[in-house]
Amino acid sequence: MKDLFGKAIFDFHTNNSPEDIITETSISEEDEMSVEYLFRTYNEMPKIEQKALQLAKGKILDVGCGAGSHALSLQNERSLEVTAIDISEKAIETCLLRGIKNAKVENILDFEGEKFDTILLLMNGTGIFGKLKNCNKYLTKLKSLLNPGGQILIDSSDIIYMFDEDEDGGKWIPSENDYYGELVFNISYKNEKEEPFDWLYLDYNTLQNAAIANGLKCELILEGEHYDYLAKLSI
Questions:
Q1: In terms of Cα–Cα distance, which of 202, 216, 224, 227 is closest to 50?
Q2: Sign of the torsion formed by the C-alpha atoms of 70, 72, 77 and 81
Q3: Does the keyword Iron apply (predicted)?
């Protein structure tokens, strides 16, 4: 990976002529994303993210932390102990520059040695699973990192609304996918193209079934205005 997402984050923070990130998926056209959005304060966050931060407690792991806005809010405004991880080196470099005390380049599947009271996966936290078949692997790993009484706070969206309806009111879904929420993402930044990567949107019922299959209780905490939701998983 060229780490273009991380480069965009780093460029924005260091005022190095940042540009918008261009995103495109297997079911949607090119779209521009302002990097500034990744640097939002608590008051600028959607209600789902605010709710997740309100519920966060104890020792916290922020998975896929990006520019670190969630971790910063918890660390600075609530004085909580937060570990922020991301696979992007430039994103983690930015997190450290922004004052996050404990930020490291790490894939959640390789993370070991610590347990947490709250694990956060926000901004479509199920995305990193990539494909539906990977849910068990990720949920098993996340469960293994929880302290007794711990919680996983994760958000996603049901993207069924993005597919065309046929005459009978059914949805027209490409047959090459095992599940309609499996997308391929493409990112471009400053005329460079990232390697395409798999990204998973999970409807709540599918997440709940996967959670139960892995010995986790799943609760719907909040539904957003656009088919999105926040869920809490616990042992």
A1: 224
A2: positive
A3: no
> Tokens representing 186?
């493409």
Q: What is the pTM of this model?
A: 0.95
22: left (phi over 0), alpha (psi -120 to 50) or beta: beta
**H/E run at residue 184:** strand 182-189
Measure the CA–CA gap between 109 and 90, rounded to whole angstroms: 20
Helix (H, G, I), strand (E, B) or coil at 21: strand
**Nearest CA to 9 among 87, 110, 77, 107?**
87
Q: 3-state DSSP: the chain helix, strand, coil percent, rounded to 5?
A: 35, 30, 35
The number of angstroms, rounded, from the C-alpha of 2 to the middle of its chain's C-alpha atoms is 19
Instruction: Write the secondary structure of 98-155 as one string of H (helix), E (strand) and C (coil).
Output: CCCCCEEECCHHHCCCCCEEEEEECCCHHHHHCCHHHHHHHHHHHHHCEEEEEEEEEE
Output the tens digit of pLDDT for each of the chain's 235 residues: 899 999 999 999 999 999 999 999 988 999 999 999 999 999 999 999 999 999 999 999 999 999 999 999 999 999 999 999 999 999 999 999 999 999 999 999 999 999 999 999 999 999 999 999 999 999 999 999 999 999 999 999 999 888 777 667 666 666 667 799 999 999 999 999 999 999 999 999 999 999 999 999 999 999 998 899 999 999 9
